[in-house]
Write a structure and sequence with these properties.
The structure is a single chain. By secondary structure, the protein is an alpha+beta fold. Helix content is 49%, strand content 12%. The chain has helices spanning 14-26, 41-49, 51-62, 81-90, 106-109, 118-128, 134-153, 163-180, 187-190, 194-202, 209-213, 220-245, 252-258, 269-299, 302-315, 323-328, 332-344, 376-379, 399-403, 423-440; strands at 35-36, 65-70, 73-78, 95-96, 160-162, 320-321, 350-355, 359-361, 364-366, 371-375, 441-444, 453-455, 459-461, 466-471, 479-480. A 6-stranded mixed β-sheet has the order 1-2-3-10-7-4, with helices on both faces. Strands 5-14-11 form a 3-stranded antiparallel β-sheet. It has a two-stranded parallel ribbon with strand order 6-15. Strand 2 (65-70) and strand 3 (73-78) form a beta hairpin. The longest helix is centred in the middle third of the chain and has 31 residues, at 269-299. The chain is globular and about 65 Å long. The protein binds protoporphyrin IX containing FE. The site of protoporphyrin IX containing FE has 27 residues, from helix 14 and helix 20.
Length: 484
């Protein structure tokens, strides 16, 4: 017997799903919040290209709750501290993820933790949580540092590197090894460039809205499916190898293969595959964006880099930083830079949900079965909460300033029962990568480089991040010790 998964989406025919959305909208028993509710392809396109200014403009006009018609349907946006807290914590049980605005992600990830709700979500989370406890994190640090050191040693002083692609490959290798005990250089993985396959698969989510509806040959959906099947080959072959050999380790795959509930129900191969795919995606994509945006900002803030390097000189013992220092985030300057990076560029920028019952928030009604999104990216740019939000100012996150933030103001990892399960893993990885690069290199952006951001479905630099790397002169090269 296997643990019972969620029911399939109402209808897998995309046109039927659109019709069902329209029927739900027409059946609304209370009005939608004010906003732009006429069909407009221009608005839909603009939302796909530059959602942040659009959301901030709408916030100015309509306040923290408003409706925008994106493509065929009304989408309610709820911005700001109180709204974030309402959706993720105080009224989270009135919202589901699975039928929300990003439901197409099920096409890649299936029914992993991100896309499921209710009891199945609670039970799946319980199975996976032990893999993210402190002792597991400490154990992962060894592998993580081996991979990061190896990748940093491949950076050639004096040459230009695309730091975005470099980090993406690195983060995928770390996710494969530390999360799944999968050897990226082994026979099964070597033939597949998983990072590139994910990049291809995720490009579906930045294709034209209209094209995303179509199924059949040569459509973005068909390309997504072809790429997903290649990733499946890798995941299923590892599952069958582990089941046949009984080989287990400290990794999440081992946990999933042996997981069972009190009645002895276990996870099917498909369910294990969906969790693995979800964690591989979530575990490398967000980290990659965070490292990229952090170094983008650092390249134009030499005074912050100087503070970070002074902190390293102060904290490294015999040129070494311990794994437990990394896990606990003891480097205060680095921690503030990380927090500010995730304020200005929270990779998972939108929290897509669907309401179950109608509700009222701050005097506005919202129907049941409405698309409702909270957005960390827009909420982190509200000037009344974060003054001059476009400025990169790590001092916003001194312990005192952080404690003074209203509940729900800062939500780069979401909140409540859906708080990012990989938060500590991701923070640890970004700290480790940043520490090693900062200890060995000076870096700068080409003068002509202009940052453009794409969202697909997480935000990242649209054209990568070309960085000129130079050896640090006159500084002792830092090391990170794998020992705790
Ligand atoms: C800097 C790095 C990361 C950021 C900013 C981030 C952000 C987030 C956010 C905002 C959510 C909640 C989305 C929502 O409310 O709809 C989330 C959920 C999730 N994240 Fe992360 N994440 C990061 C790293 C990771 C890593 C490294 C992993 C895996 C190892 C991971 C796995 C997940 C999973 C499985 C969920 C779904 C949790 C649930 O619904 O129970 N994330 N993440």
């Amino acid at each position: 017997m296997t643990l019972v998964g969620p029911p399939p989406l109402l209808d897998s025919n995309p046109f039927a799903v659109l019709l069902s959305d329209l029927r739900d909208e027409r059946a609304a028993t209370v009005p939608f919040p004010a906003g732009e509710t006429r069909f407009s392809l221009a608005r839909t396109r603009r939302f796909a290209a530059e959602p942040l200014p659009m959301l901030l403009e709408a916030y100015e006009r309509f306040g923290p709750v408003f409706t925008l018609r994106i493509f065929h349907g009304n989408v309610v946006f709820m911005l700001g501290p109180a709204a974030n807290h309402y959706v993720t914590v105080s009224h989270a049980s009135n919202f589901i993820w699975r039928e929300g605005h990003f439901r197409d992600l099920i096409g890649l990830m299936g029914d992993g933790l991100l896309t499921i709700d209710g009891d199945f979500h609670r039970r799946s989370r319980r199975v996976m949580l032990p893999a993210f406890h402190q002792e597991h994190l400490l154990a992962s640090t060894q592998t993580m540092l081996e991979e990061i050191t190896r990748a940093v040693e491949q950076l050639v002083p004096g040459e230009r590197v695309d730091l975005y692609f470099w980090t993406r490959r690195l983060a995928m290798r770390v996710a494969m090894r530390a999360l799944f005990g999968l050897n990226p250089d082994g026979d099964r993985a070597r033939s597949i460039d998983a990072a590139a396959l994910f990049e291809q698969a995720l490009s579906y989510y930045s294709s034209e809205y209209l094209l995303r509806i179509f199924r059949g040959p040569f459509t973005p959906w068909a390309r997504l499916q072809t790429t997903a099947r290649k990733l499946d080959e890798l995941i299923y072959s590892e599952i069958s190898h582990r089941r046949a050999s009984g080989e287990r380790g400290q990794d999440i795959l081992s946990l999933l293969l042996d997981a069972h509930d009190e009645d002895g129900n276990t996870l099917s191969d498909l369910q294990v595959r969906d969790e693995v795919m979800t964690l591989l995606f979530a575990g490398h994509d967000t980290t990659t964006s965070t490292v990229s945006f952090m170094f983008y900002e650092l390249a134009s803030h030499p005074e912050i880099v100087a503070r970070l390097q002074a902190e390293q000189a102060d904290q490294l013992t015999d040129g070494q930083l311990s794994a437990s220092q990394l896990v606990s985030g003891e480097l205060r300057e680095l921690e503030m830079v990380l927090d500010e990076t995730l304020r200005k560029y929270p990779p998972a920028w939108v929290g897509p949900r669907r309401s179950i019952e109608p509700f009222e928030f701050e005097g506005h009604t919202v129907p049941g079965r409405a698309f409702v999104n909270y957005s960390s990216w827009a909420s982190h740019h509200l000037p009344d909460v974060f003054p001059e939000p476009e400025e990169f100012r790590p001092r916003r996150f001194t312990p005192e300033a952080r404690a003074a933030l209203p509940k729900g103001a800062y939500v780069p990892f979401g909140g409540g029962s859906r708080t990012c399960i990989g938060m500590r893993f991701g923070q640890l990885e970004v700290r480790a990568i940043a520490t090693l690069i900062l200890s060995r290199f000076e870096f700068s952006l080409p003068e002509e480089f202009r940052l453009e951001i794409r969202q697909m479905p997480t935000i990242s630099p649209k054209h990568g991040l070309p960085m000129l790397m130079r050896s640090r002169t006159g500084a002792s090269r830092g090391e990170v010790a794998a020992a705790a």
